Structure formats: structure tokens, C-alpha cells
Amino acid sequence: MSRADTAPLPIHRGQPLLRRRAFVEHLMGMPISLHVKAIDVHRDDIEAAARNAFAMLDRVNDIFSLWRDDSELARLQAGDVLAGECHPWQGEVMELALEAEEATEGRFSAWFGERAAYDPTGLVKGWAVDKAADFLRVVPGISFCLSAGGDLVVGAGPHLPGGAPAWLIGIQDPYAADGYAATVEVARGAVATSGSAARGAHVIDPRTGSPISRPGSATVVGPDLVWADIWATAAYVDPAGLADLLPRRAPSYHLSLL
Amino acid sequence: MRRITLWLMSTISALVLLFSYPTSTNSTTAASGADDSVEAAVTPNATTTPEATATPDGAATTDGSATSDATPSDATASDATPSDGSTSATDQSTPSDAGSTSDSATGTFAGDSVMTRWGAVQVQLTVKDGQITKSEVIQIPWDNPRDQQINSYAVPILNKEVVTSQTASIDMVSGATVTSVGYIQSLQSAIDQAHLA
């Protein structure tokens, strides 16, 4: 049902006027909001890409969810399945988890209690959203923002008239849920925020094994969501340490503490 | 008098210290967007909490809020060396516009431009009645394309007034994870509703 061939090209201040469309689904226990800007937001290929992105996240949930005991990861933890029989994503995520632990010098870890328990939940979301966003990055003439419960990727496909537009991202005030404490413009990149605001204490300090209960939040802006998310979590765990470590380890990622 | 000058200068020094890190490496770093605008504040809660200027290495020195009996500063900063004295920026800081007629410390104080490894950094504080009402980076490293590329990811604006003025045009929301249960009351939900086809 492409209407691009019938509608005249709308022009606004010398730029084609991009319309906007939102898709929202609930996956992995959280709202996934996909917003697309394009001249014609009802193109079939945009809808197909959106469906693929959501399906990808659904599949990740099947494999990695620890909120259900029939996921592959849950069965792997329980010893009901062997690592060699698992989806290749398991290896990919585990490798990333090792890398994250090394890069953050132990402030982020997927292992708890002397490596007794492996739980990569803290990075699976960012990793999955990056992957899902690939379905959108190949769609010509669109700009998009894909958010999973407050961690988001902004990107654009090829041949977008006027180039990739900036999205104004509001960073939620951790002390007032209905307000913004900061804004950041992103045309391509990722924004991740870690804090206790929404879920209560759900971030665990891997160095002590205890949940972090301090107020506030940490936001990281950078190229990829998986790393923005890892760094934001590590920064929430150890703000002072990360303010020092991040510019050395990952200078393209930038931290704001609120 | 001396106390507020000390405090202001040390706050400026703390801010300059902040910016001796690569841009946007901490809470108070902010810069402008792709244009060269430098409307960029560095303390989200500057109006009420001097503590917001704490630096990662703990160099911020806030000895409590400035008292309203502080008198306008005609003294130069040169005799007000913060006790930590940890940065050369400190003793170069001078109030650039302290000539307010108010009885309380009021004016705009700019630290000198300081060369860091990453380029020149300059911080300016606006003070009214002994309280910092605004703090801005008025010079940030933009010297080479790599800086610009890095800074293009590095621009959370924390200036309260700017953020408030932008609220209506915010496209998406980043925050601590929203669950499906809490979604309906979330800021993102309201934005989604406006664009659902």
C-alpha cells in the first residue's frame, strides 16, 4: 500500500517533510517503542522491517529470558541442555559478557558468587536492540528510534533526503518521574540510562553482590546501545570510578550522572 | 565575602577540573549540539545545590551554601586561592562581571580559558544573591574533526531552563527501565500515543 507514487513530495523549509509513525509492543516484560520518520511512513518495507525487529526481540526473549524456566538460558543454567547444543547467540553473548567485565574492570559482570551463576540479563537487552535495529538501518529513506524500556538506538537508513535528522532525547529526571533532567540530540547512536527509579533496586554491584540502592541515574550516550548500556550500568554502580575509566577505555561514550 | 569568593573560585576550579576530562565524561559535562552553540550548562541543580558540582576525583569544595550577607566582590580572585589549589585554572580565575550593584554577590564569573590535553576549556558561572543560578561551558574543544565526532555523541544538555523550554519537542525518552506495568504512566507512553498510526 505504498502511497509514495501518488502523493506529491511534501517540502518543508527546503527539506522533505518527514512524517512519523510509532509502533509499540510489549516484549521481555517491557514496552518496546519504535518510531519511524519517513516521507511515507506506511510503506510496506517499513512495516516489514518493524515486524522483523519485534520478532527478533521476541526470539531473543525465548532464548535468554530468565523470567521463564523454558528459555534456552534457563535450561542451560539448570543443566538440561549443553552449551554446544545452544543457539550461537549464547556464545556471542557470553563473549560479550567477558569483554564487558574486562572493560569495566569488574564493575559490570554477568557472573555472581565466584562465577557460580551466569546471568547476562544486564547486557542482553542492549545487544538485542542493536541487532533488531539492523533491520531498520537497511530500509532506505527512514530515520528511526527504537527504545526498549528507556534504552534506545537512533539510526537512519540510506538515501534519506536531507540526511539523518537529530532526535531530541529527553533524559528522565530520576528524582521526578514526570519530568526531564536533561536532553541530548542524537542522529545516529545510542542512549542508555541506568538507575533505580523504575524497578527499585535491580542493579547489583558485582564487587559486593549487593543491590545498589542509591538514588539518581547514569546516562551514557555513544555509538552502540550494548556498550552504552554496559557503561551506564557500571557508572550507576561506581560513578566516580567510571568518570575516570570511561574516557580512557571508551572515549566515544559519554557519561552524565544525575 | 572572602568565603563566597573562595567558594566560587573553588567551584569554578572544580568545573574546570571536570573539563580537564574528555568532554562529557561526567555528570556535569554538557555541550551543544551539532551547531556551534555553546548554551551548555554544567550543573543540573545549580540553583539549589552547590554539591552538584562534585567532581569525580572529589575536588569540589563546597563548604555549604553561600550566605546572603555576602557582599559584592570587588576583590580580585588572586587573593582567594582555594585551599586545594589543585589546578592552575584556579588562580587564573577572575570575576569578569562582578560589578553588580546588588548587596549580595551577583554577577557572572568566568574562569580563564584553560588548555587541557583535549583543548581549551572555559567555564562561566552566573551568581545571583550568592547562589549559582547558571553554569555554562563557554569554550569547549572543537578543534579537530575527531573531537567533533566524539562530541556529537556527547551533548546532554543539563541546563534546567533549556531543558524546560525543549520539553514539548522531546522525541523519545531515556530513563531507568520502564516495565510494561508502569508503561501507561510513563513519559514515553504519552509520546507514543501521539504517533500511533
TrEMBL record, chain A:
It comes from Nostocoides jenkinsii Ben 74. Keywords: FAD, Flavoprotein, Lipoprotein, Magnesium, Metal-binding, Transferase. This is FAD:protein FMN transferase. The keyword Cell division does not apply. Its EC number is 2.7.1.180. It catalyses: L-threonyl-[protein] + FAD = FMN-L-threonyl-[protein] + AMP + H(+). Its cofactor is Mg(2+). GO terms for molecular function: metal ion binding; transferase activity. It holds the Pfam family ApbE. The keyword Flavoprotein applies. PANTHER family: FAD:PROTEIN FMN TRANSFERASE (PTHR30040:SF2), THIAMINE BIOSYNTHESIS LIPOPROTEIN APBE (PTHR30040). The lineage of its organism: Bacteria, Bacillati, Actinomycetota, Actinomycetes, Micrococcales.
